[in-house]
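W.,

You were right to be curious about this one. When I first looked at the sequence I had no strong expectations either way, so I just let the prediction run and decided to look at it fresh. Below is the sequence, 595 residues in total, followed by the output.
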Amino acid sequence: MTGTTTKAATKFYTPNYPRPQFVRSQWLDLNGEWDFSFDDDHAGIAARWMDHFPATHTINVPFTYETAASGIGEETCHPRIWYRKQLVLSPLEGKRTVLHFEGVDYKAVCWVNGGYAGEHEGAYARFSFDITDQLRQDGVNEIVLMVADSDSCLQPRGKQRWAGRNHDSFYVQTTGIWKSVWLEHVHATRLDSVKMTPDINRQMLRLDYSLQGLNEAQDLRLETEITFQGERVNKLSLPVDRASMTVEVSMMGGINGPWLQNLWSPGNPNLFDIEFVLYAGEQEIDRVGSYFGMRNISIKGGQILLNNLPLYQRLILDQGYWTDSHLTPPSEEALIQDIEAILEMGYNGLRKHMKVEDARFLYWCDVKGVLVWSEMAAAYEYNDEALERFTGEWLEVVRQQYNHPCIITWVPFNESWGVQNILHDVRQQTFTEGIYYLTKSIDPYRPVITNDGWEHTVSDILTLHDYVERGEALYETYKDKDSITGSSGTYNEWKFAFAEGYKYKGQPIIISEYGGIAFKSEHGWGYGHQVDSEEAFLERFGSLTRAIQAIPFISGYCYTQVTDVQDEVNGLMTADREPKVPLVRIREINLGRGM
């Protein structure tokens, strides 16, 4: 396996900075040791633990109590838990202090020095609280966080178990803080976000600015500078008189050489640096560094196009679990190691399965040129409550991940999870259509797969899952395009490609799950019969992969999966990232060579 590196290709990269697409200089990492208590009796609110915290443990944030990395390692479900962090922190004159949580599962309520700071529901989206008014001028400040979770299948939970034990492909639950906690000092008037939309056909970049704390008495000016490999591409200065504004920027100025050489793609992941500086009169009040890639994704004539050229996707399923830290990456280096292993195996992308990954992971996919399908964690029951919970959090995720060039596809639903009656149920069909169009209303530029695997409603790509063991059988099933795209029969003997009332409209077709081959083991499972040697593994892997590659109308595939996950031992690497077969052999098959 290649060695890892943290050398980045963007100007404003800061190691371990939790939000690499919106970088400020004044920040404080709050990961590390926190006080911790279980609250199985739900006594904390009435007893005002936010004022008098009865710590029973220490925990290593951002690892959840269920993990060994947390220092606790208790896998029993505890539906209410509390955290406390004490730190010396004084307010800075003229600044606001904002506390950021990258991910807390599931409902978080925060107090600072006993004062209510805010709350957020949802495990996968980041959120923030302005805690300036709760801070003490001198001495120790105290942050207290209560987290309520449950085993409810109405909340998006992804691969988290709900029966008190691992079952099927569902694993130990995740409760509480599982991504970075940090704070930054900012001016009251500042940039809140910038939505960056590349348009390679017009050679333009659209910037949608959003500002916070706008004061009409201020004389505000926003300067934006774009550079490429250290050379200025464009610089503009805008008067600011409203909280949101849009501008289009030419991307041709100052770029040497053919324009197409500067686009983002796998193998050529060019990134532009961009800096935003906000002035009040002549005083700088905010400075943010970021980056973007110029690329587009489109569909034409049944083909997926990247930068107007046909794209064949060689993807691998990635659930993002580690032995001692579960859903939380043990380090930024661990994220890089996974990405480099995926590239070493000849894949040009991945499907991040049932998880909204750390923003640093997406950063390194941007830098290294790895295509990503971003997928929402599923709920497993359907009613009005589940609909509302899912919709709000999914839209948060899409907005937060929008600027990453590596993300080329949105996947809100998988295998009818949470919409289990979609084949016949008009309500569930309409729900998936609504999510499709809501996603498109935020991002009309990326494909949306409405129900990955089968029973699609409205969807930009037709994706199919099939865990047949032999390539010959797989080829026989899929060689006739009409037989799998028609609605009169099942494509793999038990699932329809489309829900009732929907039909094939010429979409690209991808086999988005297959394989899942496991070596013989008494302590886990894979798909089909287990194999007992490297050669048997590679022969079966090659048989299946070559069969897909031989079908001309299929636009790509996604192999299950990159690593073992707890009881599921069908990875190309173990859970500790040890290759089961030489990665170069996998690469040879993926690239159309080898056995």
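Here's what jumped out at me. The radius of gyration is 24 Å. And, maybe more interesting for your project: Helices lie at 332-344, 359-368, 384-401, 426-442, 471-478, 481-485, 534-549, 583-590.

Coffee later to discuss?

I.
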